[in-house]
Amino acid sequence: MKEYIWFLKIYFRHQPVTMVSILLLYILMYSLQPLELLLVQRIIVSLGHQSEILAIAGLILAYILVYSLKNIQYSFSLLFIELLENKVGAMLQRSLFDAIAKADLCKLDQADYLLQIERAKDTVWFKLTNAVNDVFHFLGSVAGFCMSALIIVRLGVLYLLAFIVLGLLYNYFVKKNTKEHIDLMKRQEHEDRKLKYLSNLMQDRSNQKEIRSFKIFDWLETKRLGKFDEIRDIDLAFSKKWTVIGCLWSGLMIGLENSILLVMCYGVALTTLTVDQLIVLSQGQGQIIVGINAFAEFFSQAQKNKIYINEFKELITPEESGIPAGPNPALARAKTVMELQHVSFSYGDHSPALKDINLRVGKGESIVLVGENGSGKSTLAKVMAGLLKPTEGIVRKNCATATAAFQDYAKFEFSVRDNVGIGDVTRINDNDKIKEATIKGQISHVIEQYPKRLDTILGKKFDADGIDMSEGQWQKVAISRAFMRDADFIIFDEPSASLDALSEIQQFNNIGKYFRGKSVVLVSHRIGIAKLADRIVFMKHGEIVEEGTHAELMQLNGEYCSFFMNQAKWYDTGDQVI
Ligand SMILES: Nc1ncnc2c1ncn2[C@@H]1O[C@H](COP(=O)(O)OP(=O)(O)OP(=O)(O)O)[C@@H](O)[C@H]1O
Fold first, then answer.
1. Atom 17 of ligand 1 has which residue's CA nearest to it?
2. Averaged pLDDT, 160-172
3. Which domain holds residue 379?
């Protein structure tokens, strides 16, 4: 019940009036049914006793009123529930996005975490509101059940017991069916995701080049259909099985219901029961069964909801940040902007991508990380940027503002202004600053050619006039973001991977020029760039194996030297590698 109290509190805190209104409406709805029963009985008795026409008309009017009230109440409760869903759903969705934005980046590569997010989207909009609805239904049905039971018990305890047994039997079937269905859904969840993935592959624009060039449409479609058939066959088998069981069970229930009806009719024949009592009992039977179903439904649903609520609660509970925020006096004294002590990092259960890294970035120092593919440079850059939380070790930071540009930068289908301005959202409407950033990022001359300039939409998903930039142009937009902020500490992970040779040289010149005096950590494959840095950090298999200036490392004649010479021999300029 802990989890129910947690989320009910959230709903009450945000929408107290709506919550109380729904509760009152449900209690009213469930109380109207037994009232209807009493009125029917009174009408029959009055007719039988040939009471005054005015009294009979009054009773019929009251019955019509109760009946109409029931329908009006239903429409209102739907309206209130929708209101609740929209208001609280929007707030919960924000909590979810907030949690995703704060989660360790590598979590977003984990299938389980992605599945949790997928489920949470449903939880936000439907499952939690449904759970609130269930609680109200339950409370209302308790009230209704008690009133119906009181009416029936006056006519005979045995009738009430018989109806309760009938209700429990009905419920046994529903419970079995629901349990098996839930088990099936859980087993199918992963398969459903695979099917969704395959379907998305077929419609995603970015895959169309490969699909057409390699002519893999049929191959992919066979895969998708295979998965679709697999899921459909299992669903169909389930439906067939439960249709047969359902028919047999309904037959049994109809038999039992009619047997009870026969007993009641026999009671009328023996004059132990009057006709109005027979009508009240036969209608009351339905209300008792519905009541028991509502209880059982609530408890079985509560079991399911418990899982979703707990999972959602866990998902939106903030994680501890990887790097302690704020200035660090000890680092400030040592003129250090960042220090890593014995830092290791693993992606899930994989072998460590970083092993026992010790690194200090001095104020105003430029460091270039070099090494073979997969040696851990990008991972280290992400740990330094606070995007990945070290598995072991400590990262200490001492800088007011930091900025970063990554090789796997985001392409937002927004305007150029937004794409660049997000580098510092506080200045997203500052045209001069944005233009300056695009000049430093070497993309201003391209943007100047667009008729709408900074207002040009990048990408064509939402705007037919949108511009499709080349990969290199996109990279320049991403780099311009980094120039938006006057940061003390800048991390560049392969900022030139998609640039042509001249743009690349210009880009590095710009970094040197505009970030002079700032602390810069740069990941680059272009080893000639390393020579310009204050310090070179050479990585291999997730470890720092050599550290020093270009001259020092060349003299050492170790890993860096051979890496440098190997790259240098592809350039005629020999030692003058760019
Ligand atoms: N998201 C991920 N999940 C699992 N393993 C990963 C992930 N990203 C990187 N790795 C692994 O971590 C190791 C280090 O990768 P990283 O990208 O940091 O290397 P890198 O030196 O930047 O490589 P490159 O020069 O190719 O960009 C590699 O073995 C890689 O396979």
1. 378
2. 90
3. 361-389+490-578
Quote the pLDDT of residue 574.
45
Pairing assessment for the beta strands 535-540 and 366-371 based on DSSP bridges: parallel
Which residues, in sequence order, are CB contacts of 576 under 8 Å at separation 6+?
528
Phi and psi based region of residue 523 (left: phi greater than 0; alpha: psi -120 to 50; beta: remaining): beta
Ligand 1 centroid to 323 CA: how many Å? 21
Q: Which residue has the higher pLDDT, 109 or 266?
A: 266
Ligand 1 close to Cβ of residue 377 (< 6 A): yes
Residue 380 CA: which ligand 1 atom is closest?
18
- Conformational region of residue 494, where left means phi above 0, alpha means psi within -120 to 50, and beta covers everything else: left
Residue 527, Cβ neighbours under 10 Å: how many? 21
Cβ pair 290, 63 in contact under 8 A: no
Tell me the CA–centroid distance for residue 524 and ligand 1, in Å: 14
Q: Does the residue 342 lie in any domain?
A: no
Does 379 sit in the ligand 1 pocket, CB within 6 Å?
A: yes
Q: Pick the residue whose CA is nearest to atom 2 on ligand 1.
A: 347
CATH number at residue 568: 3.40.50.300
Q: Which of 115-119, 129-133, 495-499, 541-545 has the lowest mean pLDDT?
A: 495-499
Let me know if residue 259 belongs to a domain.
no
What is the model's pLDDT at position 443?
94
Q: Among the atoms of ligand 1, which is closest to the Cα of residue 381? A: 18
- pLDDT, the chain, mean: 87
CA of 195 to the centre of ligand 1 (A): 28
- Site to probe by mutation for ligand 1, drawn from 379, 408, 492, 567 as the one with most ligand atoms within 8 Å of Cβ, is 379
Closest C-alpha to 173, from 73, 262, 256, 265: 256
Q: Which of 440, 466, 486 is the last residue of a domain?
A: 486
Same domain, 420 and 566: no
pLDDT digits (tens, 9 = 90+) for 26-60: 888 888 888 888 888 888 888 877 777 888 889 88
Out of 454, 486, 518, a domain closes at 486
350 pocket-lining for ligand 1 (C-beta < 6 Å): yes
Asked if residue 85 is part of any domain, the answer here is yes
What is the 539 CA–ligand 1 centroid distance (Å)?
12
